[in-house]
Amino acid sequence: MSATEQSIGIARTAAHAAADKIAQDIVALDVSDRLAITDVFVIASAPSERQVNAIVDGIEEELSKQGLKPVRREGRSEGRWVLLDYAEVIVHVQHEEDRVFYALDRLWKDCPSVDLQLEGELQTSPQVLAADDAAE
């Protein structure tokens, strides 16, 4: 089983909203074969707690225009790792230090990536690249 078109659409909307708020290293992984509770993880990072929260606000605003509200939100007060659970899609917005430390990308590397259609909007942080190179 793979992610539904609806899930991919939600992930793309979230990714574009994150890119509009200058999120770094935005990726989406199709976790539907590994998890029964969701289809797609969207992962993005930022260099400060303030920017993490701005990205989260942007994502929630864009998805609310489609009538979507998260069924659960965690980590907002700390601004280090915010999880937005939209059931079919779970969005992780992490401080870049936490992104390197927890390495969700590496934990789920066996899952196929989803084309977010962000041509030219991606910004990869040097820390994530260095961590990926060190892990290989």
From TrEMBL:
Summary of the function given for this chain in its UniProt record: Functions as a ribosomal silencing factor. Interacts with ribosomal protein uL14 (rplN), blocking formation of intersubunit bridge B8. Prevents association of the 30S and 50S ribosomal subunits and the formation of functional ribosomes, thus repressing translation.
GO CC annotation, single: cytoplasm
Pfam family, one: RsfS
GO molecular function: ribosomal large subunit binding
Source organism of the structure: Arthrobacter agilis
Keywords in alphabetical order: Cytoplasm, Repressor, Translation regulation
Gene responsible for this protein: rsfS
Keyword hit for Repressor: yes
Keyword Transmembrane helix listed: no
Localization: Cytoplasm
Main location: cytoplasm
Signal peptide range in chain numbering: none
Subunit structure: Interacts with ribosomal protein uL14 (rplN).
Family of the protein in this entry: Belongs to the Iojap/RsfS family.
An individual GO BP term: cytosolic ribosome assembly
Protein name: Ribosomal silencing factor RsfS
PANTHER family per UniProt: IOJAP SUPERFAMILY ORTHOLOG, MITOCHONDRIAL ASSEMBLY OF RIBOSOMAL LARGE SUBUNIT PROTEIN 1
